[in-house]
Amino acid sequence: MAELAFACLDAGRPFLEQSPRLLAGLQRLMHGLSRTLLVTEAKKLDRKAAIKWKKALKQDMPLTEEQQAAWKRLKARHPDEFSKKEVDYPFQPPNLLEALTLSSWALRMAGPGRPMGAPGPASQCFDAVYTVRNGFHPLATEYKKLITSPFSDGDAHINNAKVFFDLEQIEYVLSQSTGRGAPSDALRPHLERWASSKESLRLLAKQLKPGSFENVATLFRKAAMNQKTKAAGAIAPLFNRALHVRAPPLPDSSLLTEDPIPPSLDVRAIEKGYSTDGVAVIDDILSPVVIEELRAYCLESTIWHDLKTTYMGAYWHRGFTSPVLLRVARALQDRFAFIRKWPLTMAWAYAYSNTDIEGRNRTRSNIGIPIHADDARVNVNIWITPDEAKIGTGGGGLIIYPKTPPLSWTKSQLLQPVQKGNAVHQFIAGVSPRSVDYKYNRAAIFDSDFFHQTAPLKFKPGHASRRINLTLLFGEMDHRRERGDGSV
User: Fold this and answer.
1) Which of 167, 291, 383, 419 is most buried, judged by most C-beta within 10 A?
2) 3-state class of 314 per DSSP?
3) Please, what's the largest Cα pairwise distance for the chain?
């Protein structure tokens, strides 16, 4: 618990440790909305400790050298997150929720004594913030009124792909009647209410132009005034909520205690290939029970809040916090030397529409994500949808352009969209691409300097047949200069 308090409420750690009872309470309540609310809740647990905590909040408490360094790196590497509010350390933001989110971004970076970062405490921060932002915690309603988080853009918009995705997923969740995948009794009525509005929602989705993004409040308000879509308008409060998240395995489960990567992998050959080409393709990267657990988590958990035209995204800082995923990340660091040197900096999952336009009887392929680079040193992609869901042979995976850009290129140059005639377009014009075909439980690992894109894909209809990939990013582009020559 002390580690959690240090991770999320570092300035108050000395006072928290004086009262284990308060510490236990704040572990549950750390996602409070403001200092006032936090103190009010703390008083219910321990009045004496709450008074100490209130005094601590008023003091200008210094940070340790490690914390100061983490925040300097945070501000330098993520300037966009600080453009609206100046943030020097966690208690200067106007609300604790935002402080926790930003704190976890800092903690997952490598620092003194944390060569692999601190993904565990970071995930706990993310979980707490997500519970308030998208869950059914009593403070969630107040949060919606008071705060606009720097990561809330996806909550404000909706498109036809999102509506059809949610409908398919909720019907899938309701079909799970036993085990950790079954919805809770408390949240099942919300799921059933959403599912009962299926026809109204489908009609609403078909009114949206493919590729367009509409304001959620405006769309649902209009829907409520139309008799045919009235049912859809009535479920607006449930949009983008954590209606169901697959329960985590028990701490002593083999999913968390045993190595998720099979011992049979030829690590030496993989590392040699990566050092030569900057690319490693590994089949059967995860044990059968681990990949099925991750697949179940993705299929069942309503954490898909990042809207795109032809796919949905679930991010580490927005609910994608499966402890099994962190176990996989650590196992990759332990197993491969070229990953071990970098901390885990981001994780996400993408679930693609089965054709080019969601909800339409189309036969054209989903073109996926165009050419881009990711902010990392090592990029790990793992495909978790069974091969029988794929239509056709070959393709459906990744196209990688295995050439390192000049070391002189800035991060903004590396991350710029590829447009005809610009520097990235000219750079990749002379590169022979490497295609990695889609295959279940296959990992495509590559130097994240390499530009890459999704290969066109086509999968069978249905939620369980969506092509889902997991992405783990290790290190950041800023680390390119640490190698001196930009080589692999």
Assistant:
1) 383
2) strand
3) 69
Q: For 254-483, CATH number?
A: 2.60.120.620
Query: What is the distance between the terminal CA atoms of the chain, rounded to a whole angstrom?
Result: 40
Residue 259 to residue 253: CA distance in whole angstroms:
12
Q: What DSSP element (H or E) covers 50?
A: helix 47-58
pLDDT (tens digit per residue) in 422-435: 888 888 888 999 99
Question: Cα dihedral sign for 225, 230, 234, 239?
Answer: negative
DSSP secondary structure letter of residue 102: H
Question: Average model confidence (pLDDT) for the chain?
Answer: 76
Measure the CA–CA gap between 188 and 224, rounded to whole angstroms: 23
Q: What are the helix (H) ranges across 207-287?
A: 216-224, 230-234, 254-257, 267-277
Radius of gyration of the chain (CA): 23
Given a contact cutoff of 8 angstroms between Cβ atoms, the answer to whether 34 and 57 are in contact is: no
pTM of the model: 0.80
The token pair at 103 is: 């704190």
Q: For the chain, which residues make up each domain, given as ranges?
A: 2-146, 153-238, 254-483
Query: What's the pLDDT band for 481 if we cut at 50, 70, 90?
Result: low
